[in-house]
Structures are given as structure tokens and as C-alpha cells.
Amino acid sequence: MLIPACKAKIHRARVTQADLNYVGSITIDEDLLEAAGIGPYQYLNMTSLENGTFWRTYAMAGKRGSGVICLNGPPARHFHPGDTIIILAEVWVTPEEMATLNPKVVFVDEHNKITRVESHALIPHPLA
Q1: Which of 30, 43, 78, 90 could form a disulfide with 64 if both were Cys (CB 3.0 to 4.6 A apart)?
Q2: Has 58 been annotated as catalytic?
Q3: Which numeric CATH code is attached to 3-120?
Q4: Cα(29)–Cα(3) distance, rounded to whole angstroms?
């Protein structure tokens, strides 16, 4: 049995572009992909803090150091430049792997530059 889980998260990234006419995907600065352990063509889920839209697509590497976060194709209708989004990398794991899963969280500034990378287990929840 495999269980879908979160492998990594890019927290509160800012959309820099939206290109309705590209064939699809999300283009992400290669520095962010590397920090999160996300590979090209890996499925990702995005959610918008502006409007609550949830979308699933695959990653494409953007220019390293550019800070690019570009929604391509249909999601360009829902995610706009300046929007703040959360990007979640999905992985399928066995129950044994789930017990030791510790996703990376990549925090960025308003220009999508990495401010820190933490393991999720080390981020305390205020209600815990």
C-alpha cells in the first residue's frame, strides 16, 4: 500500500508571472527546487492565499537565482503576479516510510529568495 504525503513545501512564495498560452506546469527558480528536493516534472500542489484556489501540476526548472514562480496554462487564470502561494511537493510512501517522513520547508522572502530551510518536525505548532 502507498500513501500520498507531503515531501516538501515552499512556503509563501510570490507569483512573479502567469502565462496562459504556455502548455502547462509551474516554472520555479532552480534554487528553490534544489533546496526543497523537488525534481523537474514532479507533481506539485499549489494553493493561493488570495483566493483559496488549489491546483495540481508539474514542476519545470526556471532560471537559477531569478526568483521566478510562473503559473503556466490554465492556472494562469487563478494565480496572478503578486499572489502569495504555498507549493507542496507530493510523494507516495509506504506506511514504514511515512513513520519517518520529515518534509523540508523552504521559507522565502518577498523576492522568492531563500531565507531558511527547516525540517517540518522542528517547526512547532502553536496548538501542539
Answers
A1: 30
A2: yes
A3: 2.40.40.20
A4: 28
